[in-house]
Design a protein that fits this description.
Layout: E1 7-12, E2 15-20, H1 31-45, E3 52-57, H2 76-95, E4 100-104, E5 107-109, H3 111-118, E6 121-125, E7 129-131, H4 145-150, H5 152-161, E8 165-166, H6 167-173, E9 178-180, H7 185-197, H8 201-214, H9 219-236, H10 238-247
Parallel strand pairs: 2-3, 3-4, 4-6, 5-7, 6-9
Antiparallel strand pairs: 1-2, 7-8
Helix pairs in contact: 1-2, 2-3, 8-9
């Protein structure tokens, strides 16, 4: 018996559309969703025709967090395996060579925040709320990506209190890059995808890699990472065609 479809994937005009597709459960993350997210992003990463990924969700909520009902009756080893599967899914989103833009709306709770933060950046609909309630649910989560996005002290405050954060504050903190009217979220995502897709794919992939690797080291090593990326662009030669288009020569 095949697993129920939790994640939809389609590619149109070089844009991969990934959609969390469990609206009846407010897109709560369960094991099948973890496995399908990982497989979907690995498929995207292997498709050279994809330039950018839009990651959204069906239904009134982006993601209500982990599916707590799934754990009923499970033993500790199962719970550990389930958490490893979720980490692997988030890592596949983050490791994708293509830029990943999350389009979030409604409630974004726990694991939904992890998915959002694993993307390169996020656009939020007005009315979106974030909450990281893991300690209050008797578990641990969101301790790493959240602090890297908003700082350690702010991350502690949100994790320790579990208080909701509205879209405007999420933008101020850096959880999302921009807030748009709810009925304009899809159009804003499409416009963003078009802008990204216009760039040469190698330059975009190398830019993403240089930013990510540079964040893990000091400025001197970061400059060396960027210089290595520049050398790859020069060796490819595609920049000459782009330069000609930009200058009209």
């Amino acid at each position: 018996m095949s697993e129920p479809r939790r994640v939809r994937l389609r590619v149109e005009d070089a844009v991969a559309h990934v959609e969390l597709a469990r609206p009846e459960a407010r897109n709560a993350v369960d094991l099948p969703m973890c496995l399908q997210l990982r497989a979907g992003f690995e498929e995207i990463d292997a498709d050279d025709g994809v330039r950018v990924v839009l990651l959204g969700a069906d239904g009134p909520a982006f993601c209500a967090g982990a599916d707590l009902k799934e754990r009923a009756g499970k033993d500790d080893p199962w719970v550990r395996r389930r958490r490893v599967a979720s980490f692997a899914a988030y890592a596949a989103i983050e490791a994708c060579r293509r830029p990943v833009v999350a389009l979030v709306h409604g409630a974004v709770v726990g694991s939904g925040g992890e998915i959002t933060l694993a993307a390169d950046f996020a656009l939020a609909a007005e009315g979106t709320t974030f909450r990281f309630p893991e300690p209050h649910r008797g578990t641990v989560g969101a301790t790493q990506r959240l602090q890297r996005a908003i700082g350690r002290r702010r991350a502690k405050e949100l994790l320790f209190t579990g208080r909701p954060v509205d879209a405007a504050e999420a933008a101020e903190l850096g959880i999302v890059s921009r807030v748009v009217p709810a009925d304009e979220l899809a159009d804003a995502g499409a416009e963003t995808a078009r802008a990204i897709a216009q760039a040469p794919p190698l330059a975009m992939a190398l830019t993403k890699r240089a930013v990510d690797l540079g964040a893990e080291t000091d400025l001197d090593r970061g400059i060396r990472i960027e210089m290595s990326a520049i050398e790859q662009c020069l060796a490819d030669g595609g920049w000459r065609e782009r330069f000609g288009k930009e200058t009209g020569k």
